[in-house]
Amino acid sequence: MTVDLQVLPIFVVITAVLALIPFVAMGEPNFDPYHPRKNPHLPYFLPTPHNVTFIKGQEAILQCAVENRGTKTVVWRKEPQSNPLTIGKTRFVADQRFRIENLEHSLSWNLHIRDVKASDSGIYECQVVAKKRKIRQHIELNVDVSSEAIKPKITINGTLFMEKGQTLRLVCNATGSRYPPDAIDWFKDGSKIKSNGRVALTSDVSLAESTISSILSVRRAMLEDAGTYVCRTSDLQVTSARVNILNTDTNNEKRESSGVTSIGSGTYEVQRSEQDPHNSKRPLHPNTVLVGFIVTLLLLKCRIIS
C-alpha cells in the first residue's frame, strides 16, 4: 500500500483538530458537563423566587422545585451553618416551626417556617445531593418587623334561638394571616350544606382586611333545622354554633272542665272556692253568730206576746 506524501500532512492535521475539540469545549467559560441541557438525566432546579419577604408572625415559605430528582435527597440549611435544617422530609433541628411540605408526586420541596422571627432572616440553601457534586440553590429570606402579621381568626354570629317559621341566619367571618381564605364551607351535624330552595349561601371577600364572610340563610325554619352548625375555611379554620328552634304553636282556649287554663307556653291551675260539706268543724264567722242571736230574741218575744 502506498501513501501519498502530499496527503499525509493534511490527514494528520485533521486528526489532531478532532482530538482537541473536547478540550476546547471544556475551556469555554459557560461549559458545564452537569448542566441539564448537556445531560438531561441530571436533577436541576425549576424557576422559583430567590428573594422573599414576610411579615413577622407569618408563615414563611421558601420554594424549591427539583426536576429529575430520582432517588436523590433534598437538603435545606441556613448559611453559614453547616448542620442541615431538614433532610428529605425529616427535621434535624429542635425548632418545631420548621417543616417540609412535599405532596405526593410533587416536584416542590418547600421549607415552611411558622411564626417567622427577625432572627430567621438570612440566606437559605436548597441542595440536591448527587454522586459527583451537590446542586445548590440559594433563597434570601427577609422578615419585616415594622408591623405585626394579622393572626387568623374565625367567628360565627347570628340568632341562636328562634321560633319555627322564622328565617335562620348565620354569618361566618374568617381572617387570613396575609390573604383572605379562598372559601368557606358550612356543615350541619357533620353533613355539608348546599344551596337549595330554602337554603341560600352568599360570600363576600375583603382583600384590604384579609377577610372573607359567608352568610347562611334558611327560610321557614323547621324544628329539624335545629342543631350544630360548623363553618370551615379553606385553610382549615373551624368554629361552630348551636341553633335552637322553638315550637310556639299552643292552644289558648280555657279548659274550664279540668280547672286548668293554658296561657302561652305555661300552664296554671285555676283554684275554685268550694265549701267542703264534710268539714263541720270549720269556725263560724262572728256576723253569723250575731244574726242567730237576734233571730232567737225575736222568736222569744213573739211567744211572750202570744
From TrEMBL:
SMART domains according to UniProt: IG, IGc2
Annotated GO biological process: synapse organization
InterPro entries for this protein: Ig-like_dom, Ig-like_dom_sf, Ig-like_fold, Ig_I-set, Ig_sub, Ig_sub2, Zig-8
Annotated ranges, domain Ig-like: 43-136, 152-244
Highest taxon listed in the record's lineage: Eukaryota
Record-level GO cellular component terms: neuron projection membrane
Name the UniProt record assigns to this protein: Ig-like domain-containing protein
